[in-house]
Specification:
2 domains, 5-stranded antiparallel sheet, alpha+beta, 3-stranded mixed sheet, 14% strand, 11 helices
């Protein structure tokens, strides 16, 4: 057995189940004698993030000592409005040392799903920072490879558990409406149509993503700009303008931006350079 393997075994031996009750969806319940300065009830009634951040920090330190032998350093804790995938509840970024938790978890009836998600992400932190598992091994099964699986089982959590609730519990009303528009269940007077261009080559829109959030986008009508026989629409986000990439967009997934949203549009969308990049990209990706 290699020195690295022996060291990993010794580090994993410091893991503990702790005083936890774990359900089938990895929700965690703590004994009533374990008290914290910031109770979950404060987080449910608070509109801001102050109590929520204190709540997460206190429990991170508790689990670090209870389950991980006090071996880790507190990361930057973040409360995120939405992740790319609707059922993602938390995320660990090893290079920036950021641990993110979905803000809608604080609206559920109990905090067991927050605690389960927090420990889940702490297991990722332990895998990358303490065991220093090579990235090629950590990325197996999208970060849930054998090393992470072993950590989870060592602390008494099922590695294959999923959120048992309705994913709609994790999205805001605006996201729900946007998803219904995207799925064709409802129509909105703010949806973009070919007439919205009014002869302009491209217009600013809000593009509805798969998780129901909307992001600023520059929508280009290929027929108006490049004389294609049939109208097709290409979208350019701020990131796309930097990388020189583009992609076809379903026009029905685009909404007219409000005046407040327009004020927050990237300044890159207002420059002559934008059309130069759009034309250059089109030449690369034209049919």
């Amino acid at each position: 057995m290699s020195i690295q393997a022996l060291q990993r075994d010794a580090e994993e031996a410091s893991l503990s189940h702790g005083r936890l009750t774990v359900d089938s969806s990895s929700g965690i319940t703590l004994p009533p004698d374990i008290k914290f300065k910031t109770p979950f009830a404060f987080c449910k009634i608070s509109q801001g993030s102050t109590f929520k951040m204190k709540y997460l920090s206190e429990r991170w330190h508790f689990f670090n000592k209870e389950l991980f032998g006090g071996s880790m350093t507190e990361p930057k804790l973040i409360i995120t409005k939405a992740f790319k995938h609707m059922k993602t509840l938390g995320f660990w970024r090893p290079y920036t040392k950021e641990l993110s938790i979905h803000h809608k978890l604080f609206t559920l009836d109990s905090d067991k799903q927050i605690l389960g998600t927090l420990v889940h992400e702490m297991a990722h932190e332990y895998d990358s920072d303490i065991l220093q598992t090579p990235i090629r091994e950590r990325m197996i099964k999208k970060g849930h490879g054998p090393s992470w699986d072993g950590i989870m089982r060592s602390i008494g959590l099922p590695a294959d558990a999923m959120f048992a609730g309705d994913s709609d519990e994790l999205i805001d009303e605006e996201q729900k409406e946007n998803l219904n528009i995207r799925r064709g269940k409802i129509e909105s007077p703010n949806q973009i149509t070919p007439a919205s261009f009014e002869g302009k080559p491209y217009i600013p829109v809000m593009f509805i993503k798969g998780n129901g959030t909307a992001e600023p986008m520059l929508l280009l009508d290929s027929q108006l700009v490049h004389g294609e026989p049939n109208s097709s629409y290409r979208g350019f986000t701020k990131k796309d303008l930097k990388t020189g990439s583009c992609w076809y967009v379903d026009i029905h997934n685009c909404l007219k931006p409000t005046s407040a949203q327009l004020k927050k549009f990237p300044p890159e969308f207002d420059t002559i350079r934008t059309l130069e990049i759009v034309n250059y990209t089109y030449e690369r990706y034209k049919p």
